[in-house]
Amino acid sequence: MYVVVVYDTAAERNPQILRTCRQYLHHVQRSVFEGALSAAQFKRFQAAVAGVIDTGYDSVLVYTYPPGSVPRREEWGAAQPSPSDIL
Amino acid sequence: MYVVVVYDTAAERNPQILRTCRQYLHHVQRSVFEGALSAAQFKRFQAAVAGVIDTGYDSVLVYTYPPGSVPRREEWGAAQPSPSDIL
Q: What is the residue-level pLDDT of chain A in tens, covering all 87 positions?
């Protein structure tokens, strides 16, 4: 399945969630990641995210697309800097 | 069509992009909005966003879903505070 992930975490946890998302997905905007994951990868990713966020404070939105379909995405404004520029 | 919008703008422009998005869509996370728009509304929204962002710096990602389909969204972590708490 294809996923789009958007996180809103406390600043002190941003490096960990960023590192976790980078292990599984492509970085497309400051706190937005995308990519295709198998069901098993999705479960491991979910567990990894749960391990770095404060579930009482941080928010992670996960949009999933059925197998074989990918999001139609438009980019308005500046093309994103290369992910390494974004913390 | 249904849209999911994620913006990453310079801090000084956040209030304007927030106000613009609120006029058209539902606020679901700090810089994430969702909602159904007609083709005409989508065009007006796009023009309104172009009017408040710096297209050389700010980034707005717009995920569109074909008519009749809506995203499957999971929320990990904290349920979002009411939109008015989020600037």
A: 999 999 999 999 999 999 999 999 999 999 999 999 999 999 999 999 999 999 999 999 999 998 888 889 999 998 775 454 454
Determine the number of helices (DSSP H) and then strands (DSSP E) in chain A.
Answer: 2, 5
Please provide the DSSP assignment of A50-75 as one string: HTTS-TTT-EEEEEEE-TT---EEEE
Give the type of residue at A20: T
Q: What ipTM was predicted for this assembly?
A: 0.87
Residue numbers in the known binding site of A for Mg(2+) are 8
| Domain coordinates in residue numbering, chain B | 2-68
SS3 of residue A37 by DSSP:
coil
- What fold, for B2-68? Alpha-Beta Plaits (3.30.70)
- Taking an 8 Å cut-off on Cβ atoms, the answer to whether B8 and A28 are in contact is no
Task: Find chain A residues with C-beta within 8 A of B49's C-beta.
Answer: 76
For B63, which residue in chain A has the nearest alpha carbon?
A73
Task: Determine the CATH number of domain A2-67.
Answer: 3.30.70.240
